[in-house]
Design a protein that fits this description.
Elements: E1 2-6, H1 16-30, E2 34-40, E3 50-53, E4 56-61, E5 63-65, E6 73-75, E7 87-91, H2 96-107, E8 111-116, H3 128-148, E9 151-154, H4 157-165, E10 173-174, H5 181-185, H6 190-197, E11 202-207, H7 216-229, E12 233-238, H8 244-253, E13 259-263, H9 267-276, E14 279-282, H10 294-301, E15 306-309, E16 324-327, H11 332-343, H12 346-357, H13 363-375
Parallel strand pairs: 1-2, 1-7, 2-4, 7-8, 8-9, 9-10, 11-12, 11-14, 12-13, 14-15, 15-16
Antiparallel strand pairs: 3-4, 5-6
Keywords: Transferase
InterPro entries: Glyco_trans_1, Glyco_trans_4-like_N
Protein name: Glycosyl transferase
């Protein structure tokens, strides 16, 4: 089968959806299929326009970007690879790039699939302009995708529910993200991580972008409460972004020695950090930034519980006191209480993490499921 994936970014651009497209495409190559990716040159200006990466044929085309928003990337050309494809699989109806390429493929009579994400997720965005204009754009693109394309997939149960109940779509296939087999099978790396970073205290872990909507300031404030209760405790923060406002906050609260910023780390160190942690904490404050949250799957793959706010797709996956703990967004005291609960009850943390692992799929399983949908 000849499969073409579409998204406005691809490797070397690193991000949640970028990683998903790369993992799915490469897994389909392993299953014996001819796989192509159409993407823009944004973020990869130093790479060839055409190249093969781990068996995936990458086509980078000229595009323009409106107002600097990645989702408003507009393609300026269409590769010939679309003509004889068996299926063209677009990722995110919010991506103008994805939608325009899919529409072009549809006009040529090619079977099209759209992977929905962040359906109506801007309705609680704190920026009023983004909330109003972004929500209108998002709902328009969702309706357009429903009208135009052949196969509907949703990355989260939240999106599937909205598509069926709000937009009246009868058949939406829930196809979540998977994890690499390496993450499921790699040996325990917690001791190695602690030794390499000279860490002796119990800690909770944040992994993700350093962005205001991720609620990191609430997490740091919660750690002030935690440190008053448990002296030998700390917070480790992994991810790209500007650390300065959060370092300043930790200094003002007098807990700078309790918060360790590691920035971007490689996969081995991330796994080690998860292994040595008590729990993963996701304190996000709005729906838009938590569509599926791949890092939840990564934590569960290493049998770690998740403490998270009830936003976006999180409450569809994290079940309170079953595989993690749910707290309201922006609630510093509730967040601190949840952290203290798991730091002081390691047996509960172990049980919640073990139950979480039962909800994790490998990329091999996901790729096979997607191929069945193509063939239907």
């Amino acid at each position: 089968m000849k499969i073409v994936h579409i998204h406005h970014h691809y490797w070397p651009v690193v991000g949640g959806l970028e990683n998903v497209v790369k993992a799915l495409a490469e897994e389909q190559v392993k299953l014996g299929h001819e796989v192509h990716v159409i993407t823009s040159t944004y973020g990869a200006e130093d790479r060839p326009r055409k190249e093969v990466i781990n068996g995936v044929h990458v086509h980078r085309i000229k595009a323009t970007r409106l107002m600097g928003y990645p989702d408003l990337t507009y393609p300026l050309e269409h590769p010939d690879v679309l003509k004889d494809a068996d299926v063209v699989h677009g990722h995110s109806q919010n991506s103008l790039f994805t939608m325009k390429i899919l529409e072009h493929a549809k006009k040529q009579g090619v079977k099209t699939a759209i992977h929905f994400m962040a359906v109506d997720a801007l309705n609680d965005h704190p920026n009023l302009v983004v909330k109003l204009l972004g929500s209108k754009y998002s709902s328009t693109m969702t309706r357009r995708a429903i009208k135009e394309f052949d196969i509907y997939m949703a990355r989260s149960l939240r999106d599937k529910e909205l598509l069926m109940n709000r937009y009246g779509v009868r058949y939406v296939h829930y196809v979540p993200d998977g994890v690499n087999d390496e993450l499921l099978n790699m040996e325990y790396l917690g001791d190695w991580f602690r030794k390499s970073r000279n860490i002796t205290s119990d800690y909770v872990l944040y992994i993700g972008r350093l962005h205001p909507l991720k609620g990191i300031n609430y997490l740091i404030r919660a750690m002030k409460i935690v440190s008053n209760e448990i002296k030998d405790s700390s917070l480790i923060i992994i991810g790209p972004g500007d650390q300065r406002p959060y370092i300043d906050l930790a200094n003002r609260l007098g807990i700078r020695d309790k918060v360790l910023f590691l920035g971007y780390v490689n996969d081995r160190e991330k796994i080690g950090a998860l292994d040595a942690s008590t729990a993963l904490v996701l304190p996000s404050i709005c729906n838009y930034v938590e569509v599926y949250s791949m890092v939840i799957s990564e934590a569960w793959a290493r049998q770690k519980p998740v403490i998270a706010t009830a936003v976006g797709g999180i409450p569809y996956r994290v079940k309170n006191m079953e595989n993690g703990i749910l707290v309201p967004p922006k609630d510093t005291k509730a967040l601190a209480t949840a952290i203290i609960t798991l730091l002081t009850n390691k047996e509960l943390a172990r049980k919640l993490g073990a139950r979480g692992r039962e909800n994790v799929n490998s990329w091999n399983q996901i790729a096979k499921e997607v191929l069945k949908l193509y063939e239907k």
